[in-house]
Amino acid sequence: MxxxxxxxxxxxxxxxxxLPAPLQALxxxxxxxxxxxxxxxxxxxxxxxxxxYLKLTDELAASLPSxxxxxxxxxxxxxxVVIHNGVLVPEASDFxxxxxxxxxxxxxxxDDTAQHLADRLDNTLDNNAVQMARLNTARFEDGLYxxxxxxxxxxxxxxxxxxxxxxAAGSVYxxxxxxxxxxxxxxxxxxxxxxxxxxxxxDAVTEFSLADGANVTNVRLSLEGENIHHIGATGARLLxxxxxxxxxxxxxxxxxxxxxxxxxEAPGANCRLNGxxxxxxxxxxDNHTTIEHVAPHCDSEETYRNIAxxxxxxxFNGRIHxxxxxxxxxxxxxxxxxLLSTGAEIDTKPELEIYADDVKCAHGATxxxxxxxxxxxxxxxxxxxxxxxxxxxxxxxxxxxxxxxVEAVRETVQARLNRFIEQxxxxx
Length: 428
Fold this sequence. Notes:
Layout: H1 21-33, E1 79-84, E2 87-88, E3 101-105, H2 111-120, H3 131-139, E4 144-148, E5 158-165, E6 170-172, E7 175-180, E8 185-195, E9 200-210, E10 215-222, E11 228-238, E12 243-251, E13 255-264, E14 270-279, E15 284-293, E16 299-308, E17 313-322, E18 330-339, E19 345-354, E20 360-368, H4 372-379, H5 385-401, H6 407-424
Parallel strand pairs: 1-5, 4-7, 5-8, 6-9, 7-9, 8-10, 9-11, 10-12, 11-13, 12-14, 13-15, 14-16, 15-17, 16-18, 17-19, 18-20
Antiparallel strand pairs: 1-2, 3-4
Helix pairs in contact: 1-2, 1-3, 4-5, 5-6
């Protein structure tokens, strides 16, 4: 009988020791717990489409060295924090000076704050379902701690630029924790980019804790090169009348995976989750989302769109869980998918699990190709077929891109998506 593969011990070697003692202790605890951890296989339900792309070789176990160079991020108005190979670069960052807002590197935390943080890390995620998030906790060398006090408002978006510098093979473990106090507000843009041409693994985790009335917008852009394997997890816990707006845009690669888990834990909490993923050639992108309606009178709205070209593969698995006490819940999920070639594959699995009887819930998914009637209409009016294909494909996803609240981000994403679709129809 063939034994299941386990995580190599090379991934559990002690990381750099600059962190405060409580965070080092947490890492060591997680590392011990991961010894002989089974790796996902095709029989692992939430990895059945992606396990074959997960190649955690010993070559990737080494941490990428942190330097002081940073590639170009989005040239937009806002505050910027640069994290190079998992370590914050203060001299390349522009921190806000706003009352009630504290942004600090993990390595700079005092022991009391570090202990407070250690007690809360991983509390937003179901770590049995998000296996690689546990590896992040065992390996992170630094991170970004963002704290908003009650009623604090960040006046401009905060851009966190994660650069994976893959001059050599290895891995990097970016981490963010956002503690949003009552009635606070902020917009956080995570931008994942890369340089270098060696194979590298990015295992990223972001967590949000939203107190009563907090309002957070999170934009996540996965823009790394073809040599980067990216596994990401985002977790959020929302209290009464808190709101999370999530906008995820991802471009495919050898392995791209994002798990998004949201818990609505007190009446009035609500979230909106929008996502777009595009793949071409033999790329892969896997989005898994979970919304837990724990308390009554909570609302959720989820819309994800995939476009797959050539011989690529896109996956969406969305789950909404209405707990037995979550009466008066209102939940909607929609996943629409567009195949641009006969060789592409899209797998979609919307799930709705309801244990309350006074709810309004709906979910649905479609997979199809471009409408030939619409194409004929455009071509008959003098638009060449390639441009018509591009226009219709952009229209399929632009509804979600237009909802990104930062104009410069919208324009940058639209331009890159347009280039992607034009490439997909070269020769059409």
